[in-house]
Structure formats: structure tokens, C-alpha cells
Amino acid sequence: MMLCLTEGRHHQIKRMFDQFQIPVLELHHLAVGHSYLEPTLLPGQSREIGQDELKSTGE
To answer: What's the CA gap between 8 and 36, in Å, rounded?
Structure first.
């Protein structure tokens, strides 16, 4: 099952599924803000943030 949440706070998905006794086995973050993560990025890996991404956050 796949669920897309545009903004989640304080383990929101886990709490929602817990109401129906459905365990959450894995969570995958596909984006952080306006920066999308490459599907080839493995757990524990990182990548550099480009200047265009920094500018789009307003910082």
C-alpha cells in the first residue's frame, strides 16, 4: 500500500494506521521541501544541495 502525505508531523502516519491496528513497517521520504530525493539514494547516503535548491527555500 502506498500513501502520499504532503505534510506530516509527529509520526502522523504511524498514529493514523495505529487507529486501525495496521503496523507501519517502512517509511520513505521522497522529498524534503522542494528538493526531491533521487530513487537511487540508499539509506544513510547523502547528496549535495545545489545553489538553486537553497534559493528556492528562501534562505
So the answer is: 16
Query: How open is the CA angle 31-35-36, to the nearest 5 degrees?
Result: 50
∠ CA(41), CA(38), CA(3), 5° rounding? 100
Under-70 pLDDT residues of the chain: 56-59
This model's pTM is above 0.90? no
Take residue 42 and report the three cell numbers written for it.
Answer: 540508499
Q: Domain locations in the chain?
A: 11-38+50-59
- Within 10 angstroms of residue 24's Cβ, the number of other Cβ atoms is 13
